[in-house]
Each structure stands twice: as C-alpha cells, then as structure tokens.
Write a structure and sequence with these properties.
The chain contains 10 helices and 12 strands. The chain has about 375 residues and is of the alpha/beta class. The strands form 3 sheets. The chain has an 8-stranded mixed beta sheet, sandwiched between helices. Strands 2-3 form a two-stranded antiparallel ribbon. Strands 6-7 form a two-stranded parallel ribbon. Helix 8 links the parallel strand 11 and strand 12.
Length: about 375
C-alpha cells in the first residue's frame, strides 16, 4: 500500500546560536508583577537601511518559540522563520523599510532568559527568573530602539504572541508607533487557550528531570517538553489539513496496531516534539507561555484599559481554521479597536493550515501586510 506523503508546508525553525547582534541594558529592569532583573541583553537582527530621517523602521515581533532570525543575511545565511516575507519588493520591502527583529526577553536565542546566568550568583536564573508579561517584553525593546536612534516606528508588526506584542507596544507608547499589524492574536487570552497552555506547562513540570526548573548541567525534561510541543502542534495546525495530508494512514499496515506511534499523524507529532527539545529551553517555554496567558488589553487595573490608548491604524488578520486564536477573537479585537476610535483594516482568510497560516501563506498574509505598510 502506498502511504500518503507527509510532505506539507512547514515553517522554518532553527536553533540560532550566532549571527545576531546583542544589546546590553546595564540598569535594573523592574517587571510588571514585581520581580527585577539586574540587567538584561536582547539579541536582534536587522535588514534594510534606516533612512536619514529615521522614519522607516518596522519592528517585527516573534511568536513564542521564534528567534530574531526572521530572514537570512550575510552573518547567518540559513532561512529565517519569515524568510519569504522580508526582502526587496517583499511583504516587508527592505528597499523601503529598515526591519528590526529581537529575540524575546525570557527567550533562549541570545536574549536574557531563565537559562542565562544571574550576575548576582553566577548560576542560571532557572525559576528564580521573574514572572514576565507581554508588556515587559515590549518595554525591554524600547531602550534598544533608543540605541538604534529610532524615536518613532513606521510600524509594529507581529503574529500570535507577536501580535500581542505589536498591540501592547501601540498602547504603551502610542506616540512611537505609526501603525500596527496583529495577525492571529487576540484582545485578551481566553480560557480555552489558557487551559491548553496550562496543560503544556504541566507536562514539562511533571517530568522528573525538570527538577523544579533547576535542571541545567544535570538533566533536561525532554519527555515532558516533547509532550508539551505535541499538544502545541495540534493547536497550530488544523484537522482538514491533516485529513488531506495524513488521512488514517498507518506507519506499517503489515503490523498489528501499537499503543505508541502507529498512525502517520502520530509520528509527525513525535517528530515535531523531539525536534523542539533540541532547540528550545524548557523554562523559557514555561515563562513565555505564562506571559501569553496574562495578556489582556481590557484590564483596567493599571488605569484605563490599554485598548483605549491604541490610535494607530491597525491591520487585524484572522484565519478560518485557527484553533488557538479562532476568528471570532479577531473579530472581537477589530470591533474593540474600532469602538475606541482606531482605524482598522480587517481581513479574514480561508486557509487549511490553522494558526501557522501566518508563517506559510505569503500571497494573502504577505499581501495584506504589504498593503497596510505601504498605503
């Protein structure tokens, strides 16, 4: 029997260990929920040229597990996670725009995160790392923009967690953001996505090798992290795609059914989970996913709701098959922005690739982004 191909559009992910620049912030950084970092470093990469007026910068925010390497360049020729979207004439046209992408505060691709040494002890922060919010992540980017001489961004752009950052930046410093793009994000994290990320974190923390987060140099919670990523992968893609791609095909029809990897779709999930364990720090996964849970533009505990501060023209894109951030959440976001006076362009795309569509659909996602940036 001929097996259906497992080939399909897949985003580029890589463990980035070189080729980026580093920005060091030597002063203490106070986090929203009260913890403090004595200093921090952000890894970042750039493409294009900053104009003499310094008015053409686009800050590109990443999702949970992406690095600063969004596009190949001389110092790192490997494809980036948005490789086809960035470049001369592209969705983000580097003949027109100066693109900056950072690795998240809390990440593990060159930025300060739980695996980084705490300068006060010389040991990895581990779970002594402070709880982070999306606001912390974007506030950490502001000194970098100052360092680059960028007072005002042409645009703040992101998808998934990146979309949350894009919106938060537009609310934190509205005077510094000319326009915003939010793809497959939300007005706030809803209970279903919170529950899904909670179960993923529980899988990591239930692994005996997690050791309360102090596994560095001793072990790695690979079994728990693999399961966590398998759960995550289910939320990133869609049933219709997998029906066409895998169907009900088994790995070996000549063998009796097994309790482990029996169907091809199961092998795909295992492959994604095992690959992720080689690329990403488990504690970063925990901290950043928790920051996503805490995201809420309607929370007025710090004063007026953050949504009310966003005045920049905003592009909101939703995907019909998105399980993680369903299209009704994009409609909710667009309606809330419009209610508060922002000019909103809303696009809802029919696509079979689920949440990951923003990494795959160059023609429609890229086309909408290009139109918004260049109007």
């Amino acid at each position: 029997m001929t097996k259906p191909s497992q080939e399909g559009p897949e985003p580029h992910y890589d463990k980035v260990v070189s080729g980026y620049a580093s920005f060091h912030h030597p002063a203490p950084f106070r986090c929203e929920w009260g913890g403090e970092l004595p200093e921090y470093t952000l890894a970042y990469e750039t493409w294009g040229e900053l104009s003499p007026e310094r008015d053409n910068a686009v800050l590109l925010h990443t999702g949970l597990s992406s690095s600063s390497h969004a596009k190949s360049h001389a110092n790192n020729p490997n494809p980036g996670w948005w490789e086809e979207f960035i470049g001369p004439g592209g969705a983000i046209d580097t003949d027109r725009f100066f693109v900056v992408c950072t690795n998240l505060l809390g990440g593990c691709y060159g930025s300060t995160g739980p695996a980084s040494p705490d300068p006060r002890t010389g040991e990895p922060y581990a779970t002594d790392f402070p709880i982070l919010t999306v606001a912390d992540m974007v506030r950490a980017q502001l000194p970098l923009l100052d360092h680059l001489g960028i007072d005002r961004l042409h645009a703040s752009v992101g998808a998934s967690l990146g979309g949350m950052q894009s919106l938060l930046l537009a609310s934190e410093v509205p005077e510094r953001v000319g326009r915003a793009v939010s793809i497959s994000a939300a007005l706030r994290s809803h209970p279903q996505s919170i529950a899904l990320r909670f179960v993923q974190r529980q899988a990591v923390m239930a692994d005996s090798d997690w050791r309360d987060g102090r596994y560095y140099g001793v072990s790695f919670p690979s079994r728990g992290q693999r399961v966590a990523r398998e759960i995550g992968t289910i939320t990133y893609r869609s049933g219709p795609e997998w029906l066409e791609r895998f169907g009900r095909a088994r790995n070996d029809d000549s063998r009796p059914p097994r309790l482990d990897e029996d169907f091809e779709v199961e092998s795909y999930l295992v492959h994604q989970g095992e690959k992720f364990c080689l690329q990403y720090d488990a504690n970063s996964y925990l901290y950043i996913s928790k920051a996503m849970d805490l995201f809420d533009l309607t929370d007025d505990s710090q004063g007026r709701p953050r949504i009310e501060a966003i005045g920049a023209p905003t592009l909101v894109i939703g995907i019909s098959s998105d399980l993680l951030f369903p299209v009704w959440q994009q409609r909710e976001l667009a309606a809330a922005l419009e209610k508060n006076g922002a000019r909103v362009t809303y696009a809802e795309l029919e696509a079979p690739y689920g949440h990951d569509t923003f990494l795959i659909d160059l023609e429609r996602v890229g086309g909408a982004v290009k139109a918004h940036l260049e109007e």
